[in-house]
Design a protein that fits this description.
Length: 169
């Protein structure tokens, strides 16, 4: 019995068509998913705890943290760049923080469009309480890691970040 020779008309695989398929590509994907799952778990726990213990949100906490690092304040553009979000996202959060008397917004005399945001004393005190407890939460979540493991992870993540920045998609 002879077999007919029909041309292979199968569609190319994703890897064949778009590249990829490097020897470590599956491992890269697994690593990305592991990092994402760890980050998601930590973020979710922190969001829940901030809401439950301080009746606040992670974006509010992040704005307060950015302003804590800059005692002279930040412009709205600097704040959105520091948080890696749009000006519109920051504006809503800042407006609510102003209503709660945690931050103040002032305009420069030369250009009324440029607003600087600073923590109030109440905002600084509130953030310091939250930051202390936040640090304890993170410390507890990472309690199974010893100092050497943390240092090793930090070095590996620094290498990973360098690789990511050096190889844009």
């Amino acid at each position: 019995m002879t077999q007919s020779k029909t041309p292979n008309t199968a569609q190319p695989t994703f890897s064949e068509k778009w590249g990829g398929g490097a020897p470590h590509s599956k491992q890269s994907l697994r690593l990305w998913l592991r990092l994402l799952s760890c980050s998601t778990i930590v973020e979710k726990r922190i969001r829940v705890r901030l809401e439950g213990e301080f009746a606040t949100t992670l974006p509010r906490f992040d704005v307060l943290a950015a302003l804590e690092r800059e005692p002279d304040g930040l412009t709205m553009s600097q704040l959105s760049a520091a948080m890696m979000v749009s000006n519109g996202n920051v504006t809503g959060v800042v407006s609510r923080l102003i209503e709660d008397l945690l931050v103040i917004r002032t305009t420069e005399s030369a250009d009324k469009r440029v607003a600087t945001v600073r923590l109030t004393r109440k905002g600084r005190e509130a953030f310091q309480k939250m930051a202390h407890v936040h640090e304890e939460w993170v410390d507890r979540m990472f309690a199974e890691l010893n100092e050497g493991q943390m240092e090793q992870l930090m070095k590996l993540l620094a290498s990973m970040r360098h690789s990511i920045e050096a190889n844009p998609i």
